[in-house]
Amino acid sequence: LVVGRFSVKGHTKNQLKAIEAFVKMRKSGRLGSDWELAVVGNLNESPETMDYLKVCREAAAGHPIVVQTNVPFKELVALYRSATCLWQWTGFGHPFGSVPELCEHLGLVAMDCFAYGVIPLLFERSGASMLIEEGRTGWNFASYEELAAQMEIVQRLFGEGSHQRTLIALREAAQRFSAASFRESLGKVIGSVRASHESATN
Fold first, then answer.
1. pLDDT one digit per residue (tens) for the chain, 202 residues
2. How far is CA 63 from CA 25, 60, 145, 151, in A?
3. How far apart are CA 65 and CA 59, in angstroms?
């Protein structure tokens, strides 16, 4: 699964790179024939974005790839529930530190994956990549080769006990970002500040 708006300017999601990588993995035998790719996102209907969408659909033609725009929320939820993993390519190809504003700032889609038990595979300069426990709640990749190797691991895990452990770990990790967890953490910070203040004034 690849989720993100279609855009060719600024903070782009690199859907075409994801499509090309998927096709390459299947052709090389690194992905089995039963794998499918869903590429979904909202569409900015500027001429250059429409051209980009056309190129993406042409690259996907003849392969088990679905490219959909402006997907209703219920359909997006269904995709999350049926997906094995998520690829996030934002920032890919830029030299380290050159354009941080074009990388994924946090990556709310990755957080959604935690909640739905979808394994995230993120380009290493995503904000969410800092939250990944490598091999336990997902992977970070820096190159096509790393992503392909990680997908080979995901294939081996699928349906085994280790895959189920990954799903449990993802759902546990999602709880760290819940409203209840935030309130608890904030309460501890406020309590600590209050105690320090009271100690200083006594």
1. 999 999 887 778 899 999 999 999 999 999 999 999 999 999 988 899 999 999 999 999 999 999 999 999 999 999 999 998 999 988 777 666 666 666 676 667 877 877 788 888 998 877 677 777 777 788 889 999 999 999 998 888 776 655 566 665 666 665 666 667 668 777 888 888 887 877 777 6
2. 12, 6, 21, 18
3. 9
Helices (H) and strands (E) in the chain, counts: 7, 6
Asked whether the beta carbons of 81 and 113 are under 8 A apart, the reply is: no
Residue 62 DSSP SS3: coil
End-to-end CA separation in angstroms for the chain:
57
Cβ atoms of residues 110 and 88 within 8 Å: yes
pTM score, two decimals? 0.79
Task: Write b or e for each residue in 92-101: b if 16 or more Cβ atoms lie within 10 A of its Cβ, otherwise e.
Answer: beeeeeeeee
Tell me if 54 sits within 8 A of 15, measured CB to CB: no
85-88 vs 139-141, strand pairing mode: unpaired
- 194, 187 in Cβ contact below 8 A? no
In order of 17, 25, 76, 147, 183, the CA distances from 193 in angstroms are 48, 53, 42, 44, 15
Amino acid at 197: H
- Tokens 């088990």 label which residue? 64
Q: What tokens appear for 60 in the block?
A: 């996907």
